[in-house]
Amino acid sequence: MKKINLHSISLCIALPLIIIAVFVINHGHLAISGLLLITFFGLLALGFSGYESLKGYVFTTMIFAGVTAALFYPEYFIQIGDFKVTTLIIPLIQIIMFGMGTSMSLNDFASIFKSPKGVMIGVTAQLGIMPVIGFILAKISNFPPEIAAGIVLIGCSPSGVASNVMAYLAKANLALSITITSIATLIAPFITPLLMSLLAGEFIEIDIFAMMWSIIKMIIIPIGSGLLFNKLRGNGVKWLDNALPVVSMLAIGIIITIITASGRDSLLEIGGVLMILVLIHNIFGYLLGYWYARIFNLAEQDARTIALEVGMQNGGLASGIANSLGKIATMGLASAVFSPLMNITGSILASYWDKRPLGQKEKDD
């Protein structure tokens, strides 16, 4: 008797479900269509999880389920009784950063001395390319000032753990990826406010020192605590190494859902245009990051790494900064759109590179 494959069944059910959902939407039954779409993404995630080649899309699919829930039922993600749900954003970011800290040690920064060229090129590419592209896109968008500033903000943010995951899947230089992410994240409290003041100052007023302190609370303190915890912990808490990445991904999903609910009305009005601009931002990050590295004669493996580091930004941090400024429903919109899109494009790019392994000569360069 053939064994029933739950994952295949989930995918088979998902296909007619999306057709039914579209039909129901066309007939104006939005409340029911919302439930159908959420179920569709849930079944898709379950189906993807059963196939090695599709597992990389599970997280993104679940984010789409959360975004769908926020768009159709925003009231559940804005306020519960007297409690404002946006209050959770900064603690969730701190948890993500603590998790990043526990996965690091001071030895990780030895890569700076072993391969200073790759690290310098990666960090300068990230701090130079994405902020400028963000500024250009913000200028041509004709969006309200706070939403335009959000596009600049995502460009001025460092890369996050997602780029490390994609570097691993793409068989890029994971050690270099982690080092660039770590360095860019640790200097973000000082660089991001300065870049925002320079590039976004014409859209909104930027208090450099207030933003610095806000980012220090979200990054430096949690990462420092994570590093200290990693140094002092014993073998009895090794289970945290498996648990914290899952918690971090869950936290990112919750943050994106909350932002989407908060800015739902604006997102419905300009969402299509914002999605196109954000996608351009993301793809140009990959392209320019890759060729910037190749111009400086970095090996193919390192160039792939830098492309992912430049193109994939820390949307969670950008959201936290927007929230700390009290502009989550406007300035936070770009990061809410950027995060799920970059996971899709990053997964596709990583899969593409994974199927094109490096030659031995390139590995030895």
Topology:
Elements: H1 6-26, H2 30-48, H3 58-72, E1 79-80, E2 83-84, H4 89-102, H5 111-114, H6 116-141, H7 145-156, H8 161-169, H9 174-199, H10 208-218, H11 220-232, H12 240-262, H13 264-295, H14 300-311, H15 315-324, H16 333-354, H17 360-364
Antiparallel strand pairs: 1-2
Helix pairs in contact: 1-2, 2-3, 3-12, 3-16, 4-11, 4-12, 6-7, 6-9, 6-13, 6-14, 7-9, 7-16, 8-9, 8-14, 8-16, 9-10, 9-14, 10-15, 12-16, 13-14, 13-16, 15-16
Structural class estimated from helices and strands? mainly alpha
Helix content: over 70%
Strand tally, please?
2
Strand order of the largest sheet: 1-2
Structural Rg: 20 Å
Query: Any idea of the CATH topology of the largest domain?
Result: Na+/H+ antiporter like fold
CATH-defined architecture of the largest domain: Up-down Bundle
Distance separating the two termini: 53 Å
The outline comes out as: globular
Strand percentage:
under 5%
Q: Helical stretch count?
A: 17
Low-confidence stretches: none
**What is the total domain count?**
2
The H-and-E topology, N to C, reads as HHHEEHHHHHHHHHHHHHH
* Mean pLDDT over the residues: 84
The level-1 CATH class of the largest domain: Mainly Alpha
Largest sheet: 2 strands, antiparallel
Index terms:
single chain; 365 residues; mainly alpha; Na+/H+ antiporter like fold; 2 domains; 1% strand; globular
